[in-house]
Design brief:
mainly alpha
Length: 187
Amino acid sequence: MNNRRGLFWKNNMNFGAIGGFALIVISIILYFFNVQESSLSSLLYYAVIISTIIIGTKYLKKIENGRISYARALGSGTLISLFASIIIAVYMFVFLKFIDTGAMEKMYDLMEMKMAEQGLPEEQLEMSLEMAKKFTTPLSIAIMTIFSYTLWGFIFSLITSAFIKKKTNGYDAAMAEIEKEINEENK
């Protein structure tokens, strides 16, 4: 049983790392083409997360003799998202804190422009910007990245798990587990 648990965690960490590094590569490419703020970039990030969840959960299903419950698939997808989000959060913290220190100023300018478009009075606009600057730091953005990517991964996993799961026959599943343990002991 411990081996099965170990495979579960190892699979999710490996695919989370793959997803996290894929998100970093995409982020770097979008940064060089200066299209980070476009809606296309968000779609690209979501596509990577969904793909990683599907491939990782299907691989887990494959190494567990083609059987996986809805709950296990949901847990796998959520953990893959969690590990990917930790990697991308570390990257974002390092990027915003040390690599492109002017990115925060660009973000504040964008906030100011959007608030001005809403027609906020000058005094209220400056107060809102001061509040935003206090709470929008590289560390807070990294922490929010972990929460948001994990939450989206959970939501995506709710859907993908319904398609990936395979209803197991209790007797067949127990026999397959026993057979697998016997095979591992004979190695």
